[in-house]
What we know:
Number of helices: 6
Radius of gyration: 24 Å
Strand content: 15-25%
Mean pLDDT: 95
Amino acid sequence: PNLTVLTEVDVDRVLLENGRASQVIGRQQGQQLSWKARKEIVLCAGSVGSPGILQRSGIGPSSVLNPLGIDVLHELPGVGGNLQDHLQLRLIYKLENARTLNQIAGTLWGKMGMGLRYLYDRSGPLAMAPSQLGAFVRSGPEQATANLQYHVQPLSLERFGEPLHPFPAFTASVCNLRPQSRGRIDISSTDMNSTPLIDPNYLSDPQDLRVAADAIRLTRRIVQAPALAAFDPKEYLPGPALQTEQELFEAAGQIGTTIFHPVGTCRMGSGGLDVVDNQ
């Protein structure tokens, strides 16, 4: 009875009174509304949304707010900084003697068959998780614990949103679980509907580059195992010709995509770039 949930509301900013957040300003179906707090406001709009709300409220780094004409009410450089994300390297292997989702879902008839099978008994490809195999491993002996995670899918495509390849293949996506690279998310204007500026800064830390190269080499070793010999896997991306450390660094940049795990843009702690403390 003491909870009201409002849907289709876009939160623009919070208002400060005597240094405390006292009011929330938002829009619902085009109408501007405000809600005044009797005690406190909990802001939890995610790693992309939270720094945007704070920055539009005048809370954040002056280097971001001043050019947009936003009065700095609380200088807080860490708002939008410390962005971390899991970068997945998507290695693709062509197969022989196998039928993958590339063939099953690659035609209109195949898609219809998948749909009918799911409607009939909730089985088939539409009943599967996106990744059929997962694994945690160490990228090298210097790692005390597993620092890589695999997601393996019985399909392949050049980029997300594009058609499946016309040949049978699987994708071995491997990501560094403990990236050292840090990026930023900042607003691009005072309009809450404007696209934020997202700079993940992937692979900017030398340690992340080394782990990425090791991950590619490790994946190649796994795929060459005798258990997969019957399927004669051939590396399609990034390509077997890329062997040197520098070539693998560049390959990681070409085949890397997000797993959509952004965190850290409103960091908790007690240092100069923290946004909230542990209370």
